[in-house]
Amino acid sequence: MKKQPLAFIDLKRQQQRLGSSVQDALARVLAHGSYILGPEVGQLEHELAKFCGAKHAISCSSGTDALILILMALGVRSGDAVFCPTFTFAATAECVVLAGGTPVFIDVEEESFNLDPMKLEGAIQAAKEAGLRPVGVISVDLFGRPADYDVLQPVCEQNKLWLLDDAAQSVGAKYKNRSIGTFGIATATSFFPAKPLGCYGDGGAIFTDDDDLVPVIKCLRVHGEGKDKYDNVRIGINGRLDTMQAAVLLEKLRIFPEEIDMRNEVAERYNQRIGNIVKVPALRPEFTSVWAQYTVRIPGGRRDAIAAKLKERGIPTGIYYARPLHQQPAYRDYPLGGSAPIAERLAGEVLSLPMHPYLEPDEQDYIVDALVTELAAS
Ligand SMILES: *Cc1c(COP(=O)(O)O)cnc(C)c1O
After folding, report:
1. What distance in Å separates the CA atoms of residue 73 and residue 261, rounded to the nearest whole number?
2. Ligand 1: which residues within 6 Å by Cβ?
3. Is residue 207 classed as helix, strand or coil in its secondary structure?
4. Are 115 and 85 in contact (CB under 8 A)?
5. How far is the CA of 168 from the centre of ligand 1 (A)?
6. How far apart are CA 246 and CA 26, in angstroms?
7. pTM score, two decimals?
8. Ligand 1 binding pocket mutation candidate from 64, 197, 200, 293 (most atoms within 8 A of CB)
9. Which atom of ligand 1 is nearest to the CA of 169?
10. pLDDT per residue as tens digits for the range 99-136
Protein backbone atom coordinates (compact mmCIF):
# COMPACT_ATOMS: atom_id res chain seq x y z
CA MET A 1 0.00 0.00 0.00
CA LYS A 2 1.34 3.36 -1.04
CA LYS A 3 0.53 5.54 1.97
CA GLN A 4 2.27 3.56 4.69
CA PRO A 5 2.99 3.93 7.48
CA LEU A 6 -0.49 4.93 8.49
CA ALA A 7 -1.01 7.52 11.20
CA PHE A 8 -3.17 6.74 14.21
CA ILE A 9 -4.42 10.34 14.13
CA ASP A 10 -3.29 12.23 11.00
CA LEU A 11 -2.84 15.87 11.96
CA LYS A 12 -0.63 16.48 8.89
CA ARG A 13 -3.55 16.03 6.52
CA GLN A 14 -5.70 18.38 8.54
CA GLN A 15 -2.88 20.93 8.42
CA GLN A 16 -2.68 20.57 4.64
CA ARG A 17 -6.39 21.17 4.38
CA LEU A 18 -6.24 24.24 6.60
CA GLY A 19 -3.58 25.60 4.24
CA SER A 20 -2.23 29.01 5.19
CA SER A 21 -5.21 29.97 7.37
CA VAL A 22 -3.47 28.96 10.62
CA GLN A 23 -0.23 30.73 9.67
CA ASP A 24 -2.24 33.85 8.80
CA ALA A 25 -4.08 33.68 12.13
CA LEU A 26 -0.78 33.31 14.01
CA ALA A 27 0.70 36.22 12.05
CA ARG A 28 -2.20 38.39 13.21
CA VAL A 29 -1.41 37.51 16.85
CA LEU A 30 2.28 38.32 16.31
CA ALA A 31 1.22 41.65 14.81
CA HIS A 32 -1.02 42.74 17.68
CA GLY A 33 1.24 41.19 20.33
CA SER A 34 -1.49 40.53 22.91
CA TYR A 35 -0.30 37.03 23.83
CA ILE A 36 -2.27 36.61 27.06
CA LEU A 37 -6.07 36.93 26.95
CA GLY A 38 -5.86 38.70 23.59
CA PRO A 39 -8.88 39.34 21.36
CA GLU A 40 -8.88 35.81 19.85
CA VAL A 41 -9.53 34.34 23.31
CA GLY A 42 -12.80 36.21 23.70
CA GLN A 43 -13.77 35.47 20.10
CA LEU A 44 -13.14 31.78 20.62
CA GLU A 45 -15.20 31.73 23.82
CA HIS A 46 -18.07 33.35 21.93
CA GLU A 47 -17.82 30.84 19.06
CA LEU A 48 -17.51 27.84 21.38
CA ALA A 49 -20.59 28.80 23.38
CA LYS A 50 -22.53 29.25 20.14
CA PHE A 51 -21.26 25.93 18.80
CA CYS A 52 -22.46 23.97 21.87
CA GLY A 53 -25.54 26.00 22.65
CA ALA A 54 -24.15 26.72 26.12
CA LYS A 55 -24.74 30.09 27.74
CA HIS A 56 -21.08 30.57 28.66
CA ALA A 57 -17.74 29.20 27.47
CA ILE A 58 -14.56 29.98 29.39
CA SER A 59 -11.28 28.95 27.82
CA CYS A 60 -8.41 27.65 29.93
CA SER A 61 -4.99 26.05 29.77
CA SER A 62 -5.97 22.35 29.48
CA GLY A 63 -8.74 19.86 30.01
CA THR A 64 -7.19 19.02 33.37
CA ASP A 65 -7.29 22.68 34.43
CA ALA A 66 -10.88 22.94 33.18
CA LEU A 67 -11.84 20.14 35.59
CA ILE A 68 -9.80 21.63 38.44
CA LEU A 69 -11.28 25.10 37.96
CA ILE A 70 -14.83 23.73 38.04
CA LEU A 71 -14.18 21.64 41.15
CA MET A 72 -12.52 24.60 42.89
CA ALA A 73 -15.46 26.84 41.94
CA LEU A 74 -17.90 24.26 43.28
CA GLY A 75 -16.01 24.36 46.57
CA VAL A 76 -14.90 20.72 46.73
CA ARG A 77 -13.07 20.15 49.99
CA SER A 78 -11.64 17.51 52.28
CA GLY A 79 -14.11 14.71 53.04
CA ASP A 80 -16.10 15.26 49.84
CA ALA A 81 -16.76 12.17 47.72
CA VAL A 82 -16.85 12.71 43.96
CA PHE A 83 -17.97 9.72 41.91
CA CYS A 84 -16.28 8.97 38.62
CA PRO A 85 -15.90 6.04 36.26
CA THR A 86 -12.83 3.87 36.82
CA PHE A 87 -12.38 3.32 33.07
CA THR A 88 -11.12 6.75 32.02
CA PHE A 89 -7.98 8.84 31.67
CA ALA A 90 -6.28 9.65 34.99
CA ALA A 91 -7.06 13.38 34.75
CA THR A 92 -10.72 12.71 35.60
CA ALA A 93 -9.82 11.51 39.10
CA GLU A 94 -6.58 13.45 39.52
CA CYS A 95 -8.50 16.72 39.57
CA VAL A 96 -10.70 15.55 42.41
CA VAL A 97 -7.65 14.83 44.56
CA LEU A 98 -5.96 18.11 43.58
CA ALA A 99 -9.12 20.03 44.49
CA GLY A 100 -9.05 18.38 47.94
CA GLY A 101 -11.76 15.75 47.53
CA THR A 102 -11.83 11.95 47.32
CA PRO A 103 -12.60 10.16 44.05
CA VAL A 104 -14.89 7.17 44.44
CA PHE A 105 -14.62 4.86 41.46
CA ILE A 106 -17.56 3.20 39.74
CA ASP A 107 -17.69 0.47 37.12
CA VAL A 108 -18.81 1.21 33.57
CA GLU A 109 -21.54 -0.13 31.29
CA GLU A 110 -20.68 -2.96 28.95
CA GLU A 111 -22.28 -1.28 25.96
CA SER A 112 -21.09 2.32 26.26
CA PHE A 113 -17.91 2.06 28.39
CA ASN A 114 -19.43 4.96 30.38
CA LEU A 115 -20.21 5.20 34.09
CA ASP A 116 -22.98 2.77 35.00
CA PRO A 117 -25.76 4.87 36.59
CA MET A 118 -27.23 1.71 38.15
CA LYS A 119 -24.12 1.37 40.31
CA LEU A 120 -24.25 4.94 41.58
CA GLU A 121 -26.64 4.39 44.50
CA GLY A 122 -24.51 1.55 45.87
CA ALA A 123 -21.39 3.69 45.60
CA ILE A 124 -23.11 6.55 47.45
CA GLN A 125 -23.86 4.17 50.33
CA ALA A 126 -20.28 2.88 50.31
CA ALA A 127 -18.94 6.46 50.43
CA LYS A 128 -21.18 7.35 53.37
CA GLU A 129 -20.09 4.23 55.22
CA ALA A 130 -16.48 5.30 54.65
CA GLY A 131 -17.29 8.60 56.38
CA LEU A 132 -17.33 10.71 53.21
CA ARG A 133 -19.86 13.34 52.11
CA PRO A 134 -21.19 12.59 48.61
CA VAL A 135 -21.20 15.89 46.66
CA GLY A 136 -21.02 15.19 42.95
CA VAL A 137 -20.53 12.99 39.92
CA ILE A 138 -18.12 13.37 37.02
CA SER A 139 -19.48 11.66 33.93
CA VAL A 140 -17.09 10.99 31.08
CA ASP A 141 -18.32 10.70 27.49
CA LEU A 142 -15.72 8.10 26.70
CA PHE A 143 -14.29 7.93 23.18
CA GLY A 144 -16.73 10.65 22.10
CA ARG A 145 -19.96 8.86 22.97
CA PRO A 146 -22.28 10.69 25.39
CA ALA A 147 -23.05 9.16 28.77
CA ASP A 148 -26.72 8.35 29.41
CA TYR A 149 -27.85 11.72 30.80
CA ASP A 150 -31.56 10.92 31.04
CA VAL A 151 -30.68 8.17 33.50
CA LEU A 152 -27.79 9.91 35.26
CA GLN A 153 -29.41 13.28 35.90
CA PRO A 154 -32.41 12.04 37.94
CA VAL A 155 -30.15 9.85 40.11
CA CYS A 156 -27.96 12.89 40.78
CA GLU A 157 -30.97 15.07 41.58
CA GLN A 158 -32.49 12.50 43.97
CA ASN A 159 -29.21 12.32 45.84
CA LYS A 160 -28.51 16.10 45.73
CA LEU A 161 -25.31 15.63 43.77
CA TRP A 162 -24.04 18.00 41.12
CA LEU A 163 -23.13 16.52 37.75
CA LEU A 164 -19.98 17.60 35.95
CA ASP A 165 -19.30 16.35 32.43
CA ASP A 166 -15.72 15.49 31.52
CA ALA A 167 -16.19 16.03 27.79
CA ALA A 168 -12.48 16.02 26.93
CA GLN A 169 -13.23 13.49 24.19
CA SER A 170 -16.76 14.45 23.22
CA VAL A 171 -17.33 18.08 22.37
CA GLY A 172 -19.33 18.11 19.14
CA ALA A 173 -21.37 15.03 20.10
CA LYS A 174 -25.10 15.12 20.74
CA TYR A 175 -27.44 13.35 23.14
CA LYS A 176 -31.06 13.44 21.98
CA ASN A 177 -30.39 16.47 19.79
CA ARG A 178 -28.82 18.36 22.66
CA SER A 179 -25.13 19.19 22.36
CA ILE A 180 -22.52 18.03 24.80
CA GLY A 181 -21.57 21.12 26.79
CA THR A 182 -25.10 21.66 28.10
CA PHE A 183 -25.47 18.81 30.61
CA GLY A 184 -25.03 19.12 34.37
CA ILE A 185 -23.75 22.13 36.25
CA ALA A 186 -20.70 22.49 33.99
CA THR A 187 -18.68 20.73 31.29
CA ALA A 188 -14.92 20.50 30.89
CA THR A 189 -13.19 19.87 27.58
CA SER A 190 -9.67 19.55 26.24
CA PHE A 191 -7.96 20.88 23.13
CA PHE A 192 -4.96 18.55 23.43
CA PRO A 193 -3.82 18.01 19.81
CA ALA A 194 -5.14 14.45 19.53
CA LYS A 195 -8.65 15.25 20.77
CA PRO A 196 -11.40 15.66 18.16
CA LEU A 197 -11.05 19.46 18.42
CA GLY A 198 -7.38 20.05 19.18
CA CYS A 199 -5.01 23.00 19.11
CA TYR A 200 -1.22 22.96 18.61
CA GLY A 201 -0.34 22.65 22.28
CA ASP A 202 -2.36 22.46 25.47
CA GLY A 203 -5.76 24.07 25.88
CA GLY A 204 -9.18 23.52 27.32
CA ALA A 205 -12.57 25.06 27.97
CA ILE A 206 -15.43 25.11 30.44
CA PHE A 207 -19.09 25.35 29.45
CA THR A 208 -21.86 26.31 31.81
CA ASP A 209 -25.30 27.90 31.92
CA ASP A 210 -24.76 28.91 35.56
CA ASP A 211 -24.28 32.70 35.78
CA ASP A 212 -22.89 32.46 39.32
CA LEU A 213 -20.09 30.05 38.44
CA VAL A 214 -18.68 32.19 35.63
CA PRO A 215 -17.11 35.04 37.66
CA VAL A 216 -15.72 32.53 40.16
CA ILE A 217 -14.08 30.42 37.44
CA LYS A 218 -12.70 33.52 35.68
CA CYS A 219 -11.28 34.73 38.99
CA LEU A 220 -9.69 31.36 39.79
CA ARG A 221 -8.22 31.20 36.26
CA VAL A 222 -6.04 34.23 37.01
CA HIS A 223 -4.63 33.57 40.50
CA GLY A 224 -7.89 34.33 42.28
CA GLU A 225 -7.82 37.92 41.06
CA GLY A 226 -10.14 40.63 42.32
CA LYS A 227 -9.69 44.04 40.67
CA ASP A 228 -6.58 42.67 38.97
CA LYS A 229 -4.10 39.86 39.51
CA TYR A 230 -2.33 41.82 42.27
CA ASP A 231 -5.58 41.89 44.23
CA ASN A 232 -6.06 38.26 45.34
CA VAL A 233 -9.46 37.36 46.70
CA ARG A 234 -9.25 33.58 46.22
CA ILE A 235 -6.56 30.92 45.97
CA GLY A 236 -6.45 30.39 42.23
CA ILE A 237 -4.16 29.04 39.53
CA ASN A 238 -2.63 30.22 36.27
CA GLY A 239 -5.19 28.59 34.02
CA ARG A 240 -5.40 30.80 30.93
CA LEU A 241 -5.48 29.72 27.29
CA ASP A 242 -2.76 31.35 25.13
CA THR A 243 -3.94 33.77 22.45
CA MET A 244 -1.89 31.75 19.89
CA GLN A 245 -3.85 28.60 20.69
CA ALA A 246 -7.15 30.48 20.56
CA ALA A 247 -6.20 31.72 17.08
CA VAL A 248 -5.46 28.13 15.96
CA LEU A 249 -8.74 26.89 17.43
CA LEU A 250 -10.81 29.57 15.68
CA GLU A 251 -9.54 28.22 12.35
CA LYS A 252 -10.04 24.59 13.33
CA LEU A 253 -13.54 25.21 14.68
CA ARG A 254 -14.61 26.38 11.21
CA ILE A 255 -14.00 22.95 9.70
CA PHE A 256 -14.98 20.94 12.79
CA PRO A 257 -18.66 20.32 11.88
CA GLU A 258 -17.61 18.83 8.57
CA GLU A 259 -14.87 16.81 10.27
CA ILE A 260 -17.46 15.33 12.62
CA ASP A 261 -19.42 14.10 9.60
CA MET A 262 -16.23 12.66 8.14
CA ARG A 263 -15.46 10.86 11.42
CA ASN A 264 -18.91 9.35 11.36
CA GLU A 265 -18.41 8.14 7.79
CA VAL A 266 -15.15 6.50 8.83
CA ALA A 267 -16.86 4.86 11.81
CA GLU A 268 -19.71 3.65 9.63
CA ARG A 269 -17.28 2.06 7.16
CA TYR A 270 -15.56 0.25 10.02
CA ASN A 271 -18.93 -0.87 11.40
CA GLN A 272 -19.99 -2.28 8.06
CA ARG A 273 -16.80 -4.16 7.41
CA ILE A 274 -16.00 -5.58 10.84
CA GLY A 275 -19.32 -5.33 12.69
CA ASN A 276 -19.95 -9.03 12.33
CA ILE A 277 -16.38 -10.12 13.09
CA VAL A 278 -15.47 -8.24 16.28
CA LYS A 279 -17.51 -6.38 18.84
CA VAL A 280 -17.70 -2.79 17.54
CA PRO A 281 -18.88 0.31 19.41
CA ALA A 282 -22.65 0.26 19.85
CA LEU A 283 -24.43 3.50 19.16
CA ARG A 284 -28.12 4.12 19.68
CA PRO A 285 -30.01 6.33 17.22
CA GLU A 286 -30.58 9.03 19.86
CA PHE A 287 -26.81 9.62 20.28
CA THR A 288 -24.14 10.94 18.00
CA SER A 289 -20.46 10.37 18.71
CA VAL A 290 -17.42 12.37 17.62
CA TRP A 291 -15.35 9.16 17.60
CA ALA A 292 -12.36 10.35 19.60
CA GLN A 293 -11.50 6.65 19.39
CA TYR A 294 -12.88 3.73 17.42
CA THR A 295 -12.42 0.90 19.88
CA VAL A 296 -13.12 -2.76 19.22
CA ARG A 297 -12.94 -5.64 21.67
CA ILE A 298 -10.71 -8.62 21.15
CA PRO A 299 -11.35 -11.19 23.88
CA GLY A 300 -9.51 -14.37 24.77
CA GLY A 301 -6.14 -12.84 25.65
CA ARG A 302 -5.32 -12.27 21.97
CA ARG A 303 -5.45 -8.47 21.94
CA ASP A 304 -1.76 -7.68 22.51
CA ALA A 305 -0.55 -10.25 19.99
CA ILE A 306 -2.92 -8.89 17.35
CA ALA A 307 -1.85 -5.31 18.05
CA ALA A 308 1.78 -6.41 17.57
CA LYS A 309 0.95 -8.10 14.25
CA LEU A 310 -0.87 -5.00 13.03
CA LYS A 311 2.13 -2.89 13.96
CA GLU A 312 4.34 -5.13 11.81
CA ARG A 313 2.02 -4.31 8.92
CA GLY A 314 2.40 -0.56 9.53
CA ILE A 315 -0.92 -0.17 11.34
CA PRO A 316 -0.74 1.75 14.62
CA THR A 317 -3.29 0.96 17.31
CA GLY A 318 -3.86 2.22 20.84
CA ILE A 319 -4.97 0.68 24.12
CA TYR A 320 -7.25 3.00 26.07
CA TYR A 321 -7.04 1.99 28.85
CA ALA A 322 -4.84 -0.95 29.80
CA ARG A 323 -5.63 -0.52 33.50
CA PRO A 324 -8.72 0.90 35.24
CA LEU A 325 -7.90 3.71 37.65
CA HIS A 326 -8.78 1.73 40.79
CA GLN A 327 -5.89 -0.61 39.89
CA GLN A 328 -3.35 2.15 39.23
CA PRO A 329 -0.62 2.53 41.87
CA ALA A 330 -1.56 6.17 42.52
CA TYR A 331 -5.29 5.51 42.87
CA ARG A 332 -5.72 2.05 44.33
CA ASP A 333 -6.16 3.31 47.89
CA TYR A 334 -9.21 5.39 46.95
CA PRO A 335 -12.62 3.77 47.37
CA LEU A 336 -14.21 1.61 44.74
CA GLY A 337 -18.01 1.68 44.94
CA GLY A 338 -18.70 -2.06 44.73
CA SER A 339 -16.65 -4.02 42.23
CA ALA A 340 -15.64 -3.24 38.65
CA PRO A 341 -15.67 -6.48 36.65
CA ILE A 342 -16.59 -4.77 33.38
CA ALA A 343 -13.83 -2.18 33.51
CA GLU A 344 -11.35 -4.90 34.42
CA ARG A 345 -12.41 -7.05 31.48
CA LEU A 346 -12.42 -4.13 29.04
CA ALA A 347 -8.85 -3.25 30.01
CA GLY A 348 -7.72 -6.61 28.64
CA GLU A 349 -9.81 -6.51 25.46
CA VAL A 350 -9.98 -2.98 24.04
CA LEU A 351 -8.06 -2.01 20.93
CA SER A 352 -8.44 1.37 19.26
CA LEU A 353 -7.97 1.48 15.48
CA PRO A 354 -6.69 4.47 13.49
CA MET A 355 -9.45 7.10 13.53
CA HIS A 356 -9.44 10.61 12.09
CA PRO A 357 -11.51 12.50 9.52
CA TYR A 358 -8.97 12.07 6.74
CA LEU A 359 -8.68 8.27 6.80
CA GLU A 360 -9.33 7.14 3.22
CA PRO A 361 -11.43 4.13 2.16
CA ASP A 362 -8.44 2.26 0.70
CA GLU A 363 -6.54 2.76 3.95
CA GLN A 364 -9.49 1.47 5.92
CA ASP A 365 -9.67 -1.54 3.62
CA TYR A 366 -6.02 -2.23 4.32
CA ILE A 367 -6.58 -1.96 8.09
CA VAL A 368 -9.70 -4.11 8.02
CA ASP A 369 -8.16 -6.80 5.80
CA ALA A 370 -5.15 -7.01 8.10
CA LEU A 371 -7.35 -7.25 11.20
CA VAL A 372 -9.53 -9.95 9.65
CA THR A 373 -6.47 -11.96 8.60
CA GLU A 374 -4.80 -11.69 12.00
CA LEU A 375 -7.99 -12.58 13.85
CA ALA A 376 -8.43 -15.68 11.73
CA ALA A 377 -4.82 -16.71 12.32
CA SER A 378 -4.93 -16.18 16.07
C1 LIG B 1 -7.52 14.20 27.64
C2 LIG B 1 -8.42 14.01 28.78
C3 LIG B 1 -8.39 14.85 29.90
C4 LIG B 1 -7.33 15.89 30.14
O5 LIG B 1 -7.18 16.83 29.15
P6 LIG B 1 -5.76 17.61 29.02
O7 LIG B 1 -6.09 18.73 28.09
O8 LIG B 1 -4.79 16.64 28.44
O9 LIG B 1 -5.38 18.08 30.35
C10 LIG B 1 -9.34 14.66 30.89
N11 LIG B 1 -10.25 13.68 30.80
C12 LIG B 1 -10.30 12.84 29.75
C13 LIG B 1 -11.36 11.78 29.72
C14 LIG B 1 -9.38 12.96 28.71
O15 LIG B 1 -9.43 12.11 27.68
Report:
1. 35
2. 62-64, 88-89, 91-92, 140, 166, 168-169, 190, 192, 202, 204
3. strand
4. yes
5. 5
6. 10
7. 0.97
8. 64
9. 15
10. 999 999 999 999 999 999 999 999 999 999 999 999 99
